[in-house]
Amino acid sequence: MSYETILFEVQAGVATITLNRPQKLNAFNDQMIDETTAAFKQAGRDKEIRCVVITGNGRAFSSGQDLSAFTERAHETTIGEHLRHGYHKLIKQMMQLEKPIIGAINGIAAGAAVGIALATDIRIAADSASFMLAFSKIGLIPDSGVNWLLPRLIGQARAYEMAITADQIPADQALAWGLVNRVVPAGQLAEIAAAWAGSLAAGPTLAFGLTKRAMNQAWNTDLPGALEYEALVQEIAGRSHDNQEGVAAFLEKRAAQFKGE
Ligand code: LHQ
């Protein structure tokens, strides 16, 4: 599949999606929303892909919705329909992808792009990156899953503060708040993200995917429900090649050779 607004590269089990409208700080027009969704779908279907990295080209991760593109289309749609047909599909595609997604946050993430960053599983931020809930600056509320994801990560007080101030939260503060997993020097971000992705791509992908499923499911249930769901999903993991291989490798005191199945 060929894309125009993103770059999509697959190497050694890792797919890298690069948001590629740098002249607009990688703002999302309709085509970029659709292509990013399609790229995650493609990553889900391709068994060779065992980890995905998403990053931005240039000085920003993404400035969120392309406001000029939406203004041009505003007479033919509503914001609700735009969200339902676009960002909702993208966020759900990412959350349902049973492979780890690394967000390599290379610069500012604003508006809907914060939702996309939050829908990744591991966030590595450049020390020059920042997070900005720009919505209130234009009289909107957070969307693209931010209201669901952000309070769970950093607590409601901080999430609400971010929403109503629209302050740019720098990477070190994002780390202290638990919004990102690591902060690294900007010049080393791509290399560190690629190395981490490479090691995840050699891991037990099925178990990584089922862990994501179990943790997402646990938000919707009580403890007995979560315990039962773990038992069901562990049955699946327990029948996998990688479980057999992992146990055998441990007993034989050698490194495991996981296939991801
Ligand atoms: C942009 C954008 C942009 C267009 C920079 N659009 N051109 C969902 C449904 C429907 C409608 C509304 O929204 C949503 C969800 C959302 O995402 S709402 C939030 C949308 N995003 C924003 O409000 C952020 C707007 N951008 C900014 O506040 C600044 O650009 C930030 C703080 C990100 C960066 O500031 P600077 O570093 O000073 O860069 P800049 O403002 O000079 O931007 C560089 C260029 O990129 C500039 O174009 P120009 O032709 O003047 O060089 C900007 O106009 C363009 N650009 N973001 N979202």
Overall number of structural domains: 2
Strand content range:
15-25%
CATH class of the largest domain: Alpha Beta
Helix content: 40-55%
Bound molecules: ligand LHQ
Number of DSSP strand runs: 10
The named CATH superfamily of the largest domain: 2-enoyl-CoA Hydratase, Chain A, domain 1
Overall mean pLDDT: 97
* CATH architecture type of the largest domain: Alpha-Beta Complex
In short:
The protein has twelve helices and ten strands.
Description:
Strand 2, helix 1 (30-45) and strand 3 (51-56) form a beta-alpha-beta unit. The chain folds into 2 domains: 6-201, Alpha-Beta Complex (2-enoyl-CoA Hydratase, Chain A, domain 1); 205-252, Lyase 2-enoyl-coa Hydratase, Chain  A, domain 2, CATH 1.10.12.10. The strands form 2 sheets. The chain has a 6-stranded mixed sheet with strand order 1-2-3-5-7-10, sandwiched between helices. It has a 4-stranded mixed sheet with strand order 4-6-8-9. The radius of gyration is 19 Å and the shape is globular. The chain contains 12 helices and 10 strands. It has helices at 30-45, 67-73, 79-85, 87-96, 112-118, 146-154, 156-165, 171-176, 189-201, 205-218, 223-238, 241-251; strands spanning 6-11, 14-19, 51-56, 60-62, 101-105, 108-110, 122-126, 130-132, 168-170, 182-184. With 261 residues, the chain is an alpha/beta fold. Helix 10 (205-218) runs antiparallel to helix 11 (223-238). Bound molecules: ligand LHQ. The site of ligand LHQ has 23 residues, from helix 2, helix 3 and strand 6. Residues 24-25, 27, 63-68, 70, 79, 82-83, 108, 110-112, 134-135, 137-138, 140, 143 line the site of ligand LHQ.
